[in-house]
Amino acid sequence: MRIDQGNLPALSLGCTVFAGGGGGDPRIGELMAMEAIRELGPVEVKPLDAFGDDDLIMPCGMIGAPTVMVEKIPNGAEGRVIREAYERQFGRPVAAVMPFEMGGINGVLPVAWAAYAGLPLLDGDFMGRAFPELQMLTPHLYGIPGSPAVITDERLQTVVFNTRDNIWLEKLVRNCVASLGGSACGGLYPMTVGQARRPIIPGTVSRAVRMGEAIRRGGEEPIDSIAQVAPVIRLGQGKVVDIERRTSGGFVRGSALVEGLGADKGRLFRLEFQNENLVVLEDGEPLATVPDIITLLDMHTGHGIVTEGTRYGQRIEIVAFPSPPVWTTAEGLAAVGPRAFGYDFDFVSVVDRYA
Known about the structure:
This protein is α+β, with helices and mostly antiparallel strands. It has twelve helices and 19 strands.
C-alpha cells in the first residue's frame, strides 16, 4: 500500500484511536505530511519482509510533552538531520523510515520524513500504541539498546546519546528535551531489518489506515465501525466534568472525571494519564489499565481524543482495546504494567475482565 493525499487523513484518525490518548495531536504532522506528499508524491508502505536483513531502518518521532508539541512545531528538516547522523554513524544509507510508536503525531510525522528522504515507510512499530518513556519499546524487552539516539530540535541543534542502558537513555534524553523547551524530534533504537524481526509489531500502519477509513465511512454508531477493525470493549459513556493537567519533566500528567450519561447515568469514572491514558477507575477500582489501550472517543464522531485535547463538557465514550501480546508477558508487564507507573494492583486484561 501507499500513503497519499486520499488516505493520509485516515492514518491520522486511526493513530488517535490506537494511541491510548498519547503520541501528541496528529494535526501538525498530518499537515506536514500532506505538504510533503503534495510536493513529492505518495509514500510506499512496505512490510519488513520487503527488505534485506542488512538494511538499516530508522525508527523516529517526537519526544516530550504533547501539550508543548501543539505550539512548538517541528522545523520539517529534523528527519533529514536524524537520517544523516545515522548514516555517518553506521556508514551505510538508511533503507526505510519507521514510526517508533503508532500513535498521535508519531504515527504521521514519519510519513513526511519518508517523503522528503524518498524512502519507504515500514509497516510496523515498536509499541503497537503509544507509551510515555523511552525504555517502553519492544526492543528493550530483547536487550537491544536504544543508543545511539539522535535528538534534534526545531533549530536543528543536535545531540547524540550513547548510554550504558535504556533506563539511562530515558533519563538523559528527557532532561535534554526539557532543556530544549519540552519537545524535540528523535531517532531511537536504530537497527537492521534482521535485528528488527523479533521486536517489531507488524502491520500497525496499515491497521491505523483501515481504522481511520472505517470511522470516516461512519454511521450512527461509531463503535460498530471501530469493531470492524479491532476488538473494542465499551467501558462507559459520559461527560467530562473536571480535568486537571500539568506539564513537567517532559510529560503531561493529570486526570479527568467523567460523569456517566444515558445507561451509565449515576456512574463516575476517573481517568489518569501520563502523556497516555494509564487507568480508568470507578469507586477506586480499576476498569482497565495499561498496557491495554484506553481511548476516549468523541461520542458522535468516534474520533479519538488525545490527552491534551480533553476538555470540560466533551461527550465521550471510554473504550479499551486489548494490548499487543508482547506487553502482557512477564517482561512486558514489568516495563509497562500498572505497577511500572506506581499503581498498587496487577494487570487484568479487558478481555478477561469483561469476558
